[in-house]
Amino acid sequence: MKITLFLPDKLVDFKLPSLVSGNFSFDSEKVESKLINVIAKDNQWFLYQTEDVKIVSNNVYISEVLLVPNHFYVLEREKNQYLIYAASLSFGGILAYSFLENSTFSIGNTTNSTIRYNIPYLNNMGIQIECKNHQLTLQYTGTKPIYINQKKLESSFYQILIGDELNVYGLTVLFLHGLLLIKPLKELTVDARGGYLTKFDFP
């Protein structure tokens, strides 16, 4: 299992071993009191609280919680809250979509989003991607951080390079030449009816 920590300026990934055994603590900095604390019980990974770090669920503190792939968790330390995301390390397939010159498509959680990711963190998020003059550009009008190659996008306009990876709260989109590769998620719907994206099947 992989745990992604969302920081204001970057993403940090931590990996748990394939053998569910023992306990582990992670942090993005070298500090004595680690932010993320995980223990193995009954062949499953659990996130647990410490004296310094609380787990927040529905605005109340809980002592521990089962780590489930494709789920978000909120941790609190020194009155600061941190968002983490758990994901499976196993390969669950990939969605591939081709796009043509002069294509425009969007990412968000509204009904008219081309790539719709139905999670609450995307409220008022507007990500528009355009292919023009053989170049891909991204325009962003939201206020929540999104990440390119693990780093926070610092401007509202970005020229996408081949091999760039966009991360939007657990949704990952890899940009290749004429292709988007997307990790499938249950909250994800891709609307290719507008003709901007076409499902691509590898030979």
Question: What does this molecule look like?
Answer:
- The mean pLDDT is 90.
- The protein has 2 domains: 2-87, Tumour Suppressor Smad4 (Sandwich), CATH 2.60.200; 95-199, Tumour Suppressor Smad4, CATH 2.60.200.20.
- Helix content is 0%, strand content 51%.
- The chain has a 7-stranded antiparallel beta sheet, with no helix packed on it.
- It is built from no helices and 23 strands.
- The protein has 203 residues and is an all-beta fold.
Please state the second-level CATH architecture of the largest domain: Sandwich
Q: Enumerate the strands of the largest sheet in spatial order, edge to edge or round the barrel.
A: 17-16-19-20-21-11-23
Work out the strand percent.
Answer: over 45%
How many whole angstroms does the radius of gyration measure?
18 Å
CATH top level label of the largest domain: Mainly Beta
Q: Please, how many domains?
A: 2
Secondary-structure element string: EEEEEEEEEEEEEEEEEEEEEEE
Percent helix range? under 10%
CATH topology of the largest domain: Tumour Suppressor Smad4
pLDDT < 50 runs, ≥5 residues? none
| Overall shape | elongated
User: N- to C-terminal separation?
Assistant: 30 Å
Number of helices: 0
Q: What summary fits the major beta sheet? A: 7 strands, antiparallel
What's the total number of strands?
A: 23
Structural class: mainly beta
What's the rounded overall pLDDT mean? 90
